[in-house]
Amino acid sequence: MTASLCRTLDDRALTPDVTCSSDGLLDHLRDVARTNRCKAHIELFGACAALSTNRNVARHAAAEVLVRCLSQALQRRPAFFRVGEQETSFDEKWLIALARSLKNGDESSAAFLLNSRVPKHAHRNLVFLLRNVTDSFTQV
What we know:
- The structure is a single chain.
- The protein is an all-alpha fold.
- It has one domain.
- The protein contains 6 helices and 2 strands.
- The two termini are 21 Å apart.
């Protein structure tokens, strides 16, 4: 694992560093996307309902469910690059912009980003998952 992940592995639980930046969030999502790339897709609504009440387990599960269901929300497979890669894909930029707008309470930008790529029925679940992931990062 790279140092820029801003986390430690303890039974695959996420323990974020308080100084983590948006690069840390992006690297975390890239790592989760890489490790879940061969797993079966799961249904978005059922996955949100199944998340644990244990905070550490729920944080990691939310990130895993997010990257596994993102193709369902976007209606195509998103592009995630390797951890630490300098270049950023359009999907990664869009996801970080959405995370930043949700974290900062910018509802107008969040609505614009969601409406531009995600069907209306998936907005609520996607926002729920992304908020669970970004809550563990102080900076997005």
